[in-house]
Amino acid sequence: MPRPAPTFTWLDTTVVIVYCVGITLFGLWISRKTRTSGGYFLGGRQLPWWIMIGQAFGTGTHAEGPVGQAGASYQHGFATIWYQWKNMMATPFYWLMAPWYRRTNRTTVGEIVQDRYGQFLAFLYSVFAILYFVFNQGTMLKGAGKVIAVATNNAMTPNEVVLSMAGAFLVYSFFGGLRAAAYTNFIQGFLIIVLSFMLIPWGLKEVGGISGMRQCLRPEFFQLYNQFSQINLTMIAMLTLNGLVGITAQPHILSMCATGRTERAGRVGQTYGSFVKRFCTIGWAFTGLIVAAMLCRRRETLSDPEQAFGYACLHLLGPGLTGLLVACVLAANMSACSNFMVNIGALFTRNFYVRFFRPSASDKELLWVGRTSGLALTLVGVGFALIIKEVLQTFLFNETLPAFMGIMFMGGILWRRANRHGATASIIVAFVVYYVMNHHLSGAWHLVYKWQAAPFGWAMLAGFVALLVVSMATPAEAPARINAFFDSLRRTSNEAGLPAGQPQPWAADCGEDLLLYDLPGWLTRERWHRFFYRYREDLAGFLLAWVSVGLIIAFAWGLIQI
Question: Among candidates 8, 255, 15, which has minimal Cα distance to 112?
Fold first, then answer.
């Protein structure tokens, strides 16, 4: 028989209050140095590599991750980890792509789009980016609400949790900007790691260890890949494509890659911060197996699989530990929401306010516009959190939208001939094919469809074909625009304090030239000159990243073989 459900005790409440007050005071202490718009939006581009790792990990890890993954593993086994590992095979490419953003010397991805394609597509991208932030903040908050509501024995509904949580990260983000968000992300990253694995020891004790789990569950639950999980190789390939192309156009990617002291800080932060998340995903998936075994032994089921993580919290943790779990869930959301709040403020300020209303605004004015617009638009995300139902599918939908925009962005980096007409066509065609195919399969029109490989794959193919065909059939971009854009990609951005007007050194002379830009250029002899020297930073880091992929997969495989 299950033990009586514990209540949320005074000790748990104390733990949560101490955490919330402590992280807010720390964020405000960090924010005391934020005096300019550049410091608010980009942290002055002076963040060290270890803070960059914490920022990438904290911003990329939200409560809907353990909620969705534990629910999927509870239902279909460990192999559903590929829902979260969809970016595993794409992660080594982050090392190659991170310098793109720093070398442009821009504040937002929307400004990069303007440099490459012009004002119309920059406006279109900026509208998409604001919607992306709203959808993601809503998904993150609802994921946290589901966990905390169940973990506290429904002392609060998920929506009540969302509303009470919303103000937790607003204060220090409003005053401190990206610097405060990044440093608090680093601290909160440790709590996210605790969140990912803290349930496992008590869970194993509850179900009689791994041998007890194996007695309750089908063998398919302990496989790293199988058809039972409803994820096949085609779906993994499409999820990988989703992650690889989509991340290039995620609105906050510039803050992940371009705010470090050096290009290497951005590379290390984005790549290895992502690897920390891939590792933590193992804990989420294993927790789902534990819940499946617990319910099997108790002859119970869950009406909503996404209650699995909260169920484990409720039945495995005692006084104090439940409060720690709630603090960890809050950390997972506050870290990401704070970064998103700063980015959405930067996006509105740089791509709307400056461009259409106040081109000559002072830096102090831009700072306050960024703060207030970030606050207002974040509150819209809170409203979205109150209406969404299923976290996993909303998460996958949020990851799919940037992939369609990423056709334009990645195509513009890898192919000089891509133009605004082809980019516009790629966006329209990809979205139309995606929704038409999903309507054909489901028989109904929805904003958020259950993620399926076929509609996504065909939409991506159609979008890339549209970019290629329409760009070739229409006039090229102005040579001055294209030459200036690609000239910046060929120069390192590591040199500080250069005299005004003096360009940055050529990256090839520093061993920091990029493998991934202007791919047709590989047909020229010049690109192969001094190959191993000029690309040594890319080559060494890319190889080491693939070694890291192998180690993480090997660890997960070994764990479920016990």
Answer: 255
